[in-house]
């Protein structure tokens, strides 16, 4: 298989002496950053899950929550157990979802460090990232809609379909990348069979 020649833009993006794949490359630096992000998200998710369990037993009498808008106006609501469980559970699910996305990215970057990105496992990982991103985005959209319509009507605006445009576009990009990796894995398999 012959690789295309670099265009002037491609040459401009290539920095001499800096490798993008393999040990000691930009990929290995990004893998370290993803490792740190994963453990930070894991700790945050773990603390939120512990708080979720503890919030079942915490006495919450005489506590209020103030929901405010950007102009400083707001509305005070009594803190109920259902509201507390919903809020903590939503945050735990949000951070847990991103922890799973970063976990899959770590595994993909591990293959980049090895110099072998076109593995069938990466196709599955990218599809999982797309699915998790879809679930997290949909969950945030629904949760914000519930808060705006039930807890703070008139204070917070409900989400519109336009708010799903950027996340939806991101999901499509990840799914297209999964297909690119699938095609790369197929071509690599064919090349191995011809040798």
Q: Give the strand order of the largest sheet, numbering strands 1, 2, ... along the chain.
A: 1-2
Helix-strand makeup class: mainly alpha
Through-space gap between termini: 12 Å
* Shape summary: elongated
Please write the string of helix (H) and strand (E) elements: HHEEHHH
Biggest pleated sheet: 2 strands, antiparallel
Average predicted confidence as pLDDT: 83
Low-confidence stretches: 6-12
Q: What portion of residues is helical?
A: 55-70%
Range of strand content = 5-15%
| Strand runs, count | 2
Oligomeric state, counting identical vs distinct chains: single chain
Query: What's the Cα radius of gyration?
Result: 22 Å
Number of helices, where a helix is a run of at least 4 consecutive DSSP H or I residues: 5
What does this structure look like?
A two-stranded antiparallel ribbon has the order 1-2. The longest helix has 33 residues, at 81-113. A hairpin with a 5-residue loop joins strand 1 and strand 2 (74-78). Helix 3 (81-113) runs antiparallel to helix 4 (120-151). The protein has helices spanning 8-13, 26-54, 81-113, 120-151, 165-194; strands spanning 64-68, 74-78. It has five helices and two strands. It is mostly helical and 195 residues long.
């Amino acid at each position: 298989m012959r690789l295309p020649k670099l265009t002037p833009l491609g040459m401009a993006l290539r920095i001499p002496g800096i490798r993008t794949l393999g040990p000691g490359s930009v990929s290995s630096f990004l893998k370290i950053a993803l490792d740190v992000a994963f453990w930070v998200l894991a700790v945050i998710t773990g603390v939120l899950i512990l708080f979720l369990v503890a919030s079942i037993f915490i006495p919450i009498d005489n506590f209020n929550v103030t929901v405010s808008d950007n102009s400083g106006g707001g509305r005070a609501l009594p803190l109920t157990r259902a509201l507390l469980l919903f809020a903590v559970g939503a945050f735990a699910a949000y951070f847990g979802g991103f922890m799973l996305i970063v976990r899959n990215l770590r595994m993909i970057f591990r293959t980049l460090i090895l110099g072998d990105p076109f593995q069938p496992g990466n196709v599955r990982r990218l599809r999982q990232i797309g699915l998790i991103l879809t679930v997290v985005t949909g969950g945030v959209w629904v949760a914000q809609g519930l808060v705006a319509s039930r807890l703070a009507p008139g204070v917070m605006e409900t989400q519109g379909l336009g708010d799903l445009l950027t996340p939806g576009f991101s999901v499509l990009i990840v799914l297209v990348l999964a297909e690119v990796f699938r095609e790369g894995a197929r071509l690599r398999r064919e090349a191995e069979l011809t040798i």
